Amino acid sequence: MKRPVLVLMAALLLGGSGIVWWTALREDTEPLPDEKRVAMIELEDKQSGPGYFHPDDPAATPDEQGVTWIAPDKVAVQIDRVIRERKLDESSREKLAKLIEEVSEPHPSRVIGGNRVNLARLNVALDAMK
What we know:
The chain folds into 2 domains: 1-30; 35-128, no CATH class. The protein is built from 6 helices and 3 strands. It has helices at residues 3-25, 35-46, 72-76, 79-86, 92-103, 119-128, and strands at residues 69-70, 104-106, 115-118. A hairpin with an 8-residue loop joins β2 (104-106) and β3 (115-118). The termini are far apart. This is Potassium-transporting ATPase subunit C. InterPro entries: KdpC.
């Protein structure tokens, strides 16, 4: 190869590696947010009205995936309010109880306790319920 071509290729290689090095070491870059966590937070924000189930503790914090969990008995206490706010008939009480049972799942640690309910999943199922 001719010398000018070799010089140009070397300059491009060094310049490209310098750009990669500079962008990798910049301290002002923030990591990208976890899309699943952001989506869960957005979904829970939309489900904040009185016609939805809510955590029993307003200071409840979501887990590392953005999911807020609640005990099934704490959900059952809210059935009357949800029926009243959504203007559902009394036959919906049984449907809601069955829905809570369906979305309940055992805690992965088994040591901590019994079942738990994914609050966002329950509220999405509530919206889908006819």
